[in-house]
Specification:
The chain folds into two domains: 275 residues, no CATH class; 320 residues, no CATH class. By secondary structure, the protein is an alpha/beta fold. The strands form three sheets. An eight-stranded mixed sheet has the order 5-6-4-3-7-10-9-11, sandwiched between helices. Strands 1-2 form a two-stranded antiparallel ribbon. A two-stranded antiparallel sheet has the order 8-12. Helix content is 52%, strand content 7%. The longest helix is centred in the N-terminal third of the chain and has 31 residues. It binds uridine-5'-diphosphate-glucose and manganese (II) ion (MN). This is Cellulose synthase-like protein H1. It is found in: Endomembrane system.
Length: 775
């Protein structure tokens, strides 16, 4: 009895179901209204067909769209139905095990372009990881640089030097946020309660050191580095698309292999290794997925930690205890099946007020994210995730027992799966069959031979004929490699856990401005549709593998993003069309069906607003997101849809367009680089054409309708088959939703829609109006 009680007290994590009865009722109420609308539509269509109604096809189109919206509502209902929260108790870890018994963690950071992703951003992320509260001898950090940039490498080398001061400083003073740019930009960073002179001195000298580091990194002209002291000789003449592997060990504390020091980790800084994988124009490199696979193999032959953390270059650790929280979920279940990986929600640093670009996704995470966490488990989001190495190696949950090997794979099998590197095969064998707590690779003295092995596995031809990118590692075939890879893990039967400590685990940057936000949405929607059309689609995984049915349906919530575009576009066009062509597709105010429509319109919007309020967000944030949904769907999702259609026809290829990261500055004057960062900006990219055209069309329709009301039907009583309140509200609502584009039509510079976009949009509108009025 007593022992059972102590065991209970030692619980490292708790899975807490979150009640939501009221929300469930609201879900059902909206569903009921949707179904009522469909029923009304079907019955009135039958009458119309009988009477040969003129605009019957409008109603058929509306019926199809509304049926689709109902499906989308059902998908969301499924995902949100049973949310859970995971509470973690890192303070109890110490009761379970000593520091020396914690599993090692390899931490991966990817960067791809020194212009779009300033080295200082990456440096801050790396420093925040090196300074985590975790035995330093158990942490190693690997940076993949797809930009093959001497400037990035130089910045990291300098950061490694700085880390020797920064890490002990953080430990000694219990610094809360260990990305220096945040620490030094927060006012009162120095004004600790005890205000003692010694701390103040240490703080000031640390701040000077950091400013010196920033200066060195910012002044490191690429050319200077190139002419440098020979340390950067490999970068000379290296083209980012065509160069051999470059690996640099920037920090390697040999004493970390000394067991006496290892356990406490005092005075040790985690290792830091820079990797720029081989690239050849003839070989596909699979973007981030390819980079992650190289990091997996390189770390496999060097440190081979059983746990891997991966973050994007702009996502710093905001909670220094994050690795300990993650361990609560990785070690805290009776069966590791429950935490194949541990994912922290993407949260953003310095996000703009009220989310003007609709990409902070707080509500999506709190509603859908926690909901999916209650099914088979949260999706993999590409960053802020702790993976078990063996899961990434394709091992299903029941193949190893906790203590030992069930089936030890043969050398031949491993060779076929993992490729020809002996070192990798051996390390993979120990991962697949061993348990987490075995010390990884034996103490290694010979760093040079390790690096040779690491170079071998970074070669761009290494994966040929192996399972990398398929059953092993990050999966290829989609721009949204994270969701695809997560799906494979769920399909193997693993469950996954949501890591949501307070303060938030990681913070990253969300793109601002029109082009950045829409490009990101376009890439995601493209990748998700690629998944749906591939042999990895969730239906097949549910039918033939171990993906839960409800989890499969939850994946559809995001996988169908691009498919939602044509339906939403069609529905958006119906209002203006009817006003211009003098038809109608919605019930008249005098008809009973109108009540359903009104209730649905109000109910749906109140429901959504309620969700924002529930997540402690403003009405403005709700409206911005509602509006951005319409904009994104008619631009990014629509183009994603067309891109994938073209790709399927073999007419084009999809590429990963890297998001521009804002340079984070130490002073707080950073924001005035852009006069109004929340205002929508434009460029001449084709994504802007459809929403511009829709904006123009809705304005035309509003003008048309008003004119018809005034000049046409004398009293203002519309003709019985012509547009009514519903159609007019549609057009007006569209104008409100596309307000940033209305402003774009009357503004200049980057706030104005470029002329060639306006021209193309105007041509589309002219053609549409012509066809609508054509008798
Ligand atoms: O060829 C490439 C392209 C990108 N990246 C890295 O991938 C990361 C994500 O790229 P980013 O441009 O920031 O895309 P986001 O849309 O912000 O990323 C989200 O969406 C991606 C999938 O589309 C996921 O991989 C990311 O983890 C997730 O944060 C960055 O660290 C890049 O350096 C590479 O390493 N190699
Ligand atoms: Mn990003």
């Amino acid at each position: 009895m007593a022992s059972a009680k102590t065991k209970l007290q030692l619980q490292l994590q708790e899975r807490v179901p979150l009640p939501r009865t009221a929300w469930k009722l609201a879900d059902l109420a909206v569903l009921f209204l949707l179904l009522a609308l469909l029923a009304h539509r079907v019955s009135s269509l039958m009458v119309a067909v009988g009477g040969g109604g003129g605009a019957a096809w409008c109603c058929v189109a509306a019926l199809i769209c509304e049926a689709w919206f109902t499906v989308v509502w059902l998908l969301n209902m499924n995902a949100k139905w049973n949310p859970v929260r995971f509470d973690t108790h890192p303070e109890r870890l110490a009761e379970r095990m000593s520091d020396g018994e914690l599993p090692a963690v390899d931490m991966f950071v990817t960067t791809a372009d020194p212009k779009l992703e300033p080295p200082l951003v990456t440096v801050n992320t790396v420093l925040s990881l090196l300074a985590l509260d975790y035995p330093a001898g158990k942490l190693s950090c690997y940076v993949s640089d797809d930009g093959c940039s001497a400037a990035t490498c130089y910045a990291l080398r300098e950061a490694a030097e700085f880390a020797k001061l920064w890490v002990p400083f953080c430990m000694k003073h219990g610094v809360k946020v260990r990305a220096p740019f945040v620490y030094f930009s927060e006012r009162g960073g120095a004004a600790a309660d005890d205000d003692d002179a010694e701390f103040l001195r240490a703080w000031t000298s640390m701040k000077n050191e950091y400013e010196e580091l920033v200066r060195r990194i910012e002044n490191a002209e690429e050319s200077l580095v190139r002419r440098g002291d020979g340390e950067f000789a490999e970068f000379v003449g290296a083209d980012r698309r065509n160069h051999p592997t470059i690996i640099k060990v920037l920090m390697w504390d040999n004493s970390s292999n000394d067991d006496s020091k290892n356990a406490a980790g005092d005075g040790i800084i985690p290792s830091l290794i820079y990797v720029s994988r081989e690239k050849r124009p003839t070989q596909h490199h699979y973007f981030k997925a390819g980079a992650m696979n190289v990091l997996t193999r390189v770390s496999g032959v060097v440190t081979n930690a059983p746990i891997m953390l991966n973050v994007d270059c702009d996502m710093f650790a905001n909670n220094p205890q994050v690795a300990l929280h993650a361990m609560c979920l990785l070690l805290g279940f009776d069966d590791e099946l429950h935490s194949g990986f541990v994912q922290a929600p993407q949260k953003f640093y310095g996000g703009l007020k009220d989310d003007p670009f609709g990409n902070q996704m707080q509500v999506i995470y709190e509603k859908v994210g926690f909901g999916v966490a209650g099914l088979q488990g949260i999706f993999y989001g590409g960053t802020g995730c702790f993976h078990r190495r063996k899961v990434i190696y394709g091992v299903p949950p029941d193949s190893t027992t906790t203590i030992g090997i069930k089936d030890s794979p043969s050398y031949k099998e491993l060779h076929k799966k993992f490729g020809s590197s002996k070192e990798l095969i051996e390390s993979a064998r120990s991962i697949i069959s061993g348990d987490m707590f075995r010390t990884p690779t034996e103490v290694v003295a010979d760093l040079t031979s390790l690096i040779e092995a690491a170079k071998q596995v970074s070669a761009c031809s290494y994966e040929t004929g192996t399972s990398w990118g398929q059953e092993v590692g990050w999966v290829y075939g989609s721009m949204t490699e994270d969701v695809l890879t997560g799906q494979r893990i769920h399909a193997a039967g693993w469950r996954t856990a949501l890591l949501n400590p307070d303060p938030p685990a990681f913070l990253g940057g969300a793109p601002t401005g029109g082009p950045g936000s829409l490009t990101q949405y376009k890439r995601w929607a493209t990748g998700l549709l690629e998944i749906l059309l591939s042999r990895h689609n969730p239906f097949l995984l549910a039918a033939f593998k171990r993906l839960d049915l409800r989890q499969c349906v939850a994946y559809l919530v995001i996988d169908v993003w691009a498919i939602r575009a044509p339906f939403e576009l069609c529905y958006a066009l119906l209002g203006p069309y009817c006003v211009i062509a003098n038809h109608s597709f919605l019930p008249k105010a005098s008809e009973p069906g109108f009540v359903i429509l009104l209730a649905l319109f109000l109910g749906y919007n109140v429901y959504n607003l309620g969700e924002y309020k529930d997540c402690r967000l403003s009405v403005r944030a709700w409206w911005n997101n509602h509006r951005m949904q319409r904009i994104v769907s008619s631009s990014a999702w629509l183009l994603a849809f067309l891109t994938v259609v073209l790709k399927t026809l073999g007419l084009s290829e999809t590429v990963f367009e890297v998001t521009r990261k804002e340079q984070q500055s130490t002073s707080d004057g950073g924001a005035d680089a852009v006069a109004d960062p929340g205002r929508f900006t434009f460029d001449s990219s084709p994504v802007f054409i459809p929403p511009t055209a829709l904006t123009m069309l809705s304005i035309v329709a509003v003008v048309f309708g008003a004119w018809r009301l005034v000049a046409g039907e004398g009293e203002g009583v519309p003709s019985p088959s012509g547009p009514g309140v519903g159609e007019f509200v549609c057009c007006g609502w569209l104008v409100l939703c596309f307000w940033p584009f209305v402003r774009g039509l009357v503004s200049k510079g980057s706030y104005g829609i470029p002329w060639n976009v306006r021209l193309k949009a105007a041509l589309l509108v002219a053609a549409f109006v012509h066809l609508s009025t054509w008798k």
